[in-house]
Amino acid sequence: MTPTTLTSPALFCPATINALADALVEQGWYVGKNVIDAELCHTLYHELSHLAHHKGLSEAGVGRGSEHHLRKDIRGDAIRWLNRESEAQRQYLAGMAALQQTLNQALFLGLFEHEAHFAHYPPGAFYQRHVDSFRGRANRVVSTVGYLTPNWPVDGGGEMVIYHPENPEQEVARITPEAGTFACFLSATIPHEVLPTRVARASIAGWFRRNASMGGILDPAR
């Protein structure tokens, strides 16, 4: 790929951060349109598209560590973990680091780090309803999703559906995966799913984590 030089605007303006923090406290989730800079979205989208077309992604599974399994009946995306290998990745992750600091200061969440991966859903792919962390042993605290696909069609499908934390059958939001939209929610309490997509869908999924290492046993990301 040809290296791209990016300008470096702050990923989140103060008004967005305030609205995001308030929404997490009041309802456990936040969605904002045109949050991610258009130039950054464009560059990340083409980086992910290049990886998808050159076999640079891995099929995603469910579970972690020894309990990790490929389950196409549950999720059908392919991923690649962000590792700061491009300027666009570094800029996106710097924005997440700034958000982490702000959330810690405002909400006292004790967030330790942020992990994130590209997610490519080919046509027909979905991700069944789930939560990102289990109550009582949650190291993933706040989940994040940045959407990258430009010009998302009205009939494209692929929406992320958020359900009520106390009634997982009650839909409370349906998010169109159009470029620039950013969503975040409490990992252990907000059920969500990705509906089947009719066109290729590009995003970055991430999680703010607490450090759950105990007794000298390392609790790594991912």
From TrEMBL:
Any Pfam family: 2OG-FeII_Oxy_3
Cofactor: L-ascorbate
Record's keyword annotation contains Oxidoreductase: yes
UniProt-listed InterPro entries: HIF_prolyl_hydroxylases (IPR051559), Oxoglu/Fe-dep_dioxygenase_dom (IPR005123), Pro_4_hyd_alph (IPR006620), Pro_4_hyd_alph_FE2OG_OXY (IPR044862)
Keyword Cell division on entry: no
Residue stretches spanning the membrane: none
UniProt name for this protein: 2OG-Fe(II) oxygenase
Domain Fe2OG dioxygenase, residue spans: 107-210
Keywords tagged on the record: Dioxygenase, Iron, Metal-binding, Oxidoreductase, Vitamin C
Gene3D superfamilies given in the database record: q2cbj1_9rhob like domain
